[in-house]
Amino acid sequence: MRVNGIIAGCLGALLLAAPASALDVLTGTLKKISDTGTVTLGYRESAVPFSFKDGTGQPIGYAMDLCLDVVDDIGKELGRTNLAVRYEPIQSEDRIPAVTSGRIDLECGSTTANAERRKLVAFSPVTYFSATKLLVRRGSPIASYRDLGGHTVAVTAGTTNETVLRALVARLAIATTIVTGKDHAESFAMIRDGRADALGSDDVLLYGMIANAGSDGAAFTVLPDKLSFEPYGLMFRKDDPQFATLVSTTFERLAESRELRWIYERWFLKRLPNGERLNVPMSDELRTNFQVIGLQD
C-alpha cells in the first residue's frame, strides 16, 4: 500500500508539472502538428510586404512575422521547443485548397477574409485593411476605372480583385480586356512590359510592387478610386476551435505587448530589404481593430 501511495503521489506530481494542454485532448491542426512535429506555413513569393522571398530565398514579411509568432505559441501550447517549420509556396488560385486539404496549416499572405471564403476556411483577427485600386503608367490616359474602355487590364488569377474588376466592367458595360497572371510578379510584368495598360490589385500590394521595382517604380502611379474593401487575415482550417482560440490568443498577446504595432512599423514604415520604404502609416480602421484586441496607445 505504501508503494502504491508513493507511485500515486509521483504520478500526481508529474501531472501537475505537465503543460496544461497535455491534459486536454488535442484535435484538428494542433493534433496534426503534435503528431508530426512540423508546422507547415504557406507563403507568397511576391506579395510585398506581407509575404515574399528575400535575396537568399527565405520567406519574410509582415504576415510571415505574425505566423511565426503563432508558431511560437503552438510550441508553448504543446510543450514542444523543437517544432520544425516547413515553408510551402502557394499562389492565389491554390491557397484555399492548400488549407482545406491539409497541405499547409496556416496561410501567411495577403488574403481577403470575406464571407464567401469563410464558408470554406477560417481567419485570424484582421491584419490589414486594403482596397482594390488600379496602377497605371504616369501620363496614361487612364485616370479612373471609367477610362478602361478599349484598354487591357491585368489582374492576378484567383484574387478578389479579379472578381471585382470583372463584375465592374460587366455592370458598367466597359469594353475592357482582362488578362490574368499566375502571381503578383507576373501581373506586374504585364504592365511593365506593355502587355497591359493597367493593373488591378490591392492598393498596398501595388505600393509594394512599385517599391520592389526600384528606380523603375517611379514610372507608375496608383489611381485614387477604391473599387472594393479588403480586410486581410491569416487563413487556417474551418471548424477547428482549438486552433482558432490559439491564433486569437496570439494576436491578443501581440496587441497587449505592443509588438503588433512594432511588427507593422517594421514592414510599412521602415526600409524594406531592398532599401525602399512603403511609408504607409497604420490606418484609423486598423488601429481601432487592434485596440479592440488589446493594443494601447
| Major sheet characteristics | 5 strands, mixed
Under CATH, the topology of the largest domain can be stated as D-Maltodextrin-Binding Protein, domain 2
Going by CATH, what is the homologous superfamily of the largest domain?
Answer: Periplasmic binding protein-like II
Number of strands: 15
Give the domain tally: 2
CATH C-level class of the largest domain: Alpha Beta
What shape does the CA trace take? globular
Widest beta sheet: strand line-up: 11-10-12-9-13
Q: Determine the structural class based on helices, strands and strand pairing.
A: alpha/beta
Helix amount: 25-40%
Count of separate DSSP helical elements: 11
Cα-atom Rg, whole angstroms? 22 Å
What is the oligomer described by this structure? single chain
Strand percentage: 15-25%
CATH architecture grouping of the largest domain: 3-Layer(aba) Sandwich
> Helix and strand string, N-terminal first?
HHEEEEHEHEHEEEEHEHEHEEEHHH
Overall average residue pLDDT? 92
How do you describe this structure in short?
With 297 residues, this protein is of the alpha/beta class. The chain is 40% helix and 20% strand.
Features:
single chain; 297 residues; alpha/beta; D-Maltodextrin-Binding Protein, domain 2; 2 domains; three-stranded parallel beta sheet; 40% helix
List the helices and strands and how they pair.
Layout: H1 2-17, H2 28-36, E1 38-43, E2 46-47, E3 51-53, E4 59-60, H3 62-78, E5 84-89, H4 95-100, E6 106-108, H5 115-118, E7 121-123, E8 128-130, E9 132-137, E10 152-156, H6 160-171, E11 177-181, H7 184-192, E12 198-202, H8 203-212, E13 220-222, E14 230-232, E15 235-237, H9 241-256, H10 259-268, H11 284-292
Parallel strand pairs: 1-5, 1-6, 10-11, 10-12
Antiparallel strand pairs: 2-3, 3-4, 7-15, 8-14, 9-12, 9-13
